[in-house]
Amino acid sequence: MENPRAKEILEHLNRRSPLSIDELASLLAVSTVTVRRDLSEMENDGLIIRQRGGAALPSNSIEPMFHQRHKQHLELKKQIAKYAAEQVNEGEVIAIDVGTTAAEFAKELLKKNNLTVFTNSFQAASILAKSQHQVYFIGGMLRKSEMSMVGSIAKDTVLKFNYDRFYMGLAGISLNSGPTDYSLEDAEVKRCFISKSREVIALVDKTKFGKSSLVTVCELDAITTMITNQDDGTILQEMAHYNGKLVLV
């Protein structure tokens, strides 16, 4: 976070959220023009949610837009995506979830050959359009904030096929709430992929552990393998009762 005011803005929002632009300008002793510029940068980094005349912190029920989250913890996501893609074997039939880590995973798959890929992510499908893989884009209703296809058409289509592996993203994962997501609609499609997949691989950066979002996606043990980043021990504590394979990259 290069802008020193960004840290101060987050501190004020942690005390009270939302705050108006005028309130932030007064607290920071800067002009409203400066605050608007700062908020625009922070929105692009996925740190805040812009509201009419002000800003708020993301909450369990407010999902940041895809483009807002894309740059957030990007290096952590790339580490996970690279490792996960290295484990994919030629000829496999895989499914890719929506989300920013899944999009990074799709980029890594450009280095692989001869895959059959199903996805309800517009972002992942667009990336894989540059590949030689056989790509099936699941239809349905478009969730514009996530650029994902959801609803009955998407669910019915997913359930028609069988997958070697489903690469799943999550908004949070904790001991009490398990694997969670922002969106009920996205979670329903995830469950369909889970039910038809031989293995379920969760791609979850370390900042998601200990956090809960709106809806529980599945039981923790429905996840075959969880790929995340090295950390200070928090992940091992949160995953104490996880019986699957935990990979720290």
UniProtKB/TrEMBL annotation:
CDD domains registered for this protein in UniProt: HTH_ARSR
InterPro entries: ArsR-like_HTH (IPR011991), Carb_Metab_HTH_regulators (IPR050313), DeoR-like_C (IPR014036), DeoR_HTH (IPR001034), NagB/RpiA_transferase-like (IPR037171), Tscrpt_reg_HTH_DeoR_CS (IPR018356), WH-like_DNA-bd_sf (IPR036388), WH_DNA-bd_sf (IPR036390)
UniProt-listed PROSITE patterns: HTH_DEOR_1 (PS00894), HTH_DEOR_2 (PS51000)
Alphabetical list of SMART domains matching this protein: DeoRC, HTH_DEOR
Keyword terms, alphabetized: DNA-binding, Transcription, Transcription regulation
UniProt superkingdom: Bacteria
Stretches assigned to the HTH deoR-type domain: 2-57
Protein name: DeoR family transcriptional regulator
Organism: Brevibacillus reuszeri
